[in-house]
């Protein structure tokens, strides 16, 4: 039977797992856009100079007006712009276990729901897909924001926690 199956009239169709995942990604991306806009309006996230100390687990931002922002950081993954691959933070040789916890939440979600892109260590994808992975991790972890920082031909995608803002 097709779309107009008489036995299904008046019943809502049950979303497929792929549809549910797509909806969660859209919700996560919208959530991250709101967070980013808020940080940008409060302390100019988009134009601030950044630095990350992955030994200490801290990301910092400094603006031209002397505002200094500091927050705990997590590494979600890295994107190699030369070959278009994403390497998850949950199994990254350069990411310590304490800094991979938000990435691990995405892995756990992927295992529970059978989503290979979340449980495959290295994925060929677009940069937009990397933002979706990062937004999902940010949402699942209830982080305060996300950032993409360049490191040569690689982009490091990170989430961050509660920010401390000071004026220097």
Output the keywords.
single chain, alpha+beta, eight-stranded antiparallel sheet, 29% strand, 168 residues, 35% helix, globular, disordered N terminus
Q: How many independent structural domains?
A: 1
Helix-strand makeup class: alpha+beta
Mean pLDDT: 91
Q: Based on CA inertia axes, which overall geometry fits?
A: globular
**Would you identify the regions where 5 or more consecutive residues have pLDDT less than 50?**
1-14
* Largest sheet features: 8 strands, antiparallel
* Fraction of helical residues: 25-40%
**What is the number of beta strands?**
8
Count of helix runs: 4
Radius of gyration: 18 Å
Q: How would you describe the oligomerization state of the chains in this entry?
A: single chain
In whole angstroms, the N-to-C terminal distance is: 69 Å
What does this structure look like?
The protein is an alpha+beta fold. It has four helices and eight strands, in the order H-E-E-E-E-H-H-E-H-E-E-E. Strands 1, 2, 3, 4, 5, 6, 7 and 8 form an eight-stranded antiparallel beta sheet that branches. Strand 2 (58-62) and strand 3 (67-80) form a beta hairpin. It is globular and about 50 Å long. The termini are far apart. The relative contact order is 0.19. The model is unreliable at 1-14 (pLDDT under 50).
């Amino acid at each position: 039977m097709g779309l107009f199956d008489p036995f299904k009239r008046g019943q809502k169709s049950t979303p497929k797992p792929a549809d549910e995942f797509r909806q969660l990604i859209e919700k996560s991306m919208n959530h991250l856009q709101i967070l980013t806009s808020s940080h940008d309006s409060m302390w100019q996230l988009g134009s601030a100079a950044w630095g990350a100390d992955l030994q200490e687990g801290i990301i910092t931002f400094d603006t031209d007006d002397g505002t200094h922002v500091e927050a705990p950081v997590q590494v979600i993954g890295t994107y190699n712009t030369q070959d278009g691959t994403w390497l998850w933070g949950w199994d990254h040789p350069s990411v310590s276990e304490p800094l991979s916890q938000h990435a691990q939440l995405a892995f756990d979600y992927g295992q529970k729901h059978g989503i290979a892109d979340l449980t495959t260590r290295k994925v060929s994808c677009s940069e937009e897909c990397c933002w979706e992975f990062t937004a999902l991790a940010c949402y699942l972890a209830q982080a305060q924001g996300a950032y993409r920082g360049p490191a040569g031909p690689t982009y490091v995608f990170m989430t961050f926690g509660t920010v401390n803002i000071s004026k220097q």
